[in-house]
Amino acid sequence: MKRKLFKSMCLAMLLAAFAGCGTEKNSVLPQMDLPKAEAAAKAAPAYEQEYAKVVDSVYEFIADGTSDNLPEQGRTGICEVRDFAKREAALQQLGYTLQDISGDGVPELLIGWISQKRGAGHYGKEIYAIYTFADDSVKYVAEGWSRSSLQLMANDNLVTRGGTGISHQVLAVEHLQPDGNLGCYELYFTWPKDDGLGVYRNMSCRSEADASQETDMTVEEFNEMRSEYANNSVEIEFLPLKDFKKQGFKGLMRQYLSAGR
Question: Is position 33 within any domain?
Fold first, then answer.
């Protein structure tokens, strides 16, 4: 009798233990099932959250023409793409990426044109808009479009090749400073002189002949230099804009750290 009673007590204890385990497991599940998107948003750096708003506004503009949230600065080249490319082509050819070009450890947002695909990567040299993150907010840096090419050099200098006509062509070399402002390295430009054109240079990036030094360079040599800069500019790996809604910055965030920057 005592033996049966002992067995009954043991069985009751085992059942209670299993019931307790079940209760404990159920109490943990809600914590494990917290929305991943919400957790990821909390973990994302502030710059990524703000850059995402910019890319999302570009996506909406290309996809359905909504420009309410599109930044006022940096939209010229993006508007050109939407005007001359079909919706699907524009979403495929416009790309975005994060890359630290100021050297402050916080990446910039670059939006540009994808000119080719190699393997799983999408690459291009033409940049349409650059934004940086300074003073806890997104700040416009520079833009490029069909008549004003903006490209990146291997040393992270930015090169602009453009002009307002045959007699006024420019080649500007600038660098992004940690405070979010562009610093001028040098500017070359053509300007009417006597019965021809002169080539001038200064380090203020203001195309004013009176405030610049005239060089002994010919217009042909100037054009060759412009072409050389274009050839030596670096390819940038972009993510296609069409993938932004499902991919965001996955695969790009903090890549500049792994590159040794």
Answer: no
pTM above 0.70, yes or no: yes
Contact 175, 183 (CB under 8 A): yes
For 25, the token pair is 């497991």
Looking at the structure, do residues 181 and 124 belong to the same domain, yes or no? no
Give pLDDT tens digits for 202-239: 999 988 999 999 999 999 999 999 999 999 999 999 99
Do 219 and 101 share a domain, yes or no?
no
Dig out the tokens for 215 from the structure: 């060089």
E-strand stretches of the chain: 94-99, 108-113, 116-118, 121-124, 127-134, 137-143, 148-152, 158-165, 168-176, 182-193, 196-202, 213-214, 236-240
Residues 253 and 158 in one domain: no
Q: Is residue 251 in some structural domain?
A: yes
Do 77 and 143 form a contact (C-beta atoms < 8 A)? Answer: yes
